[in-house]
# Entry
Amino acid sequence: MTRPRLAVIFWKRAARQVESAGQWWRENRHDSPDALSEELVRTLDLIARQPGVGLPATNVRLSGVKRILLPRVGYFLFYRVAPRKQLVEVLAFWHAKRGTGPRL
# Structure
């Protein structure tokens, strides 16, 4: 039996982070300008179908936050599941080399 696919929404800050990263990627990664968007689409599909796949995020104040690495591009996607609303909230998009993570 297939689980239903959850809706995915972005917090405004996360949407801005994705847009900024995407712009930088397209301008600076000429050998693979679509890699970031391809990885993001793949990861969003995965968490919509299997929201428990991420690891618990540390150093965050919000409860239930998970993170998942987009290995090809080196970014973490921080998210949480709102089961009553049947959706996944994307909270932040953060490069792994930036340190401890976003303030959530």
In short: Helices lie at 12-28, 35-49.
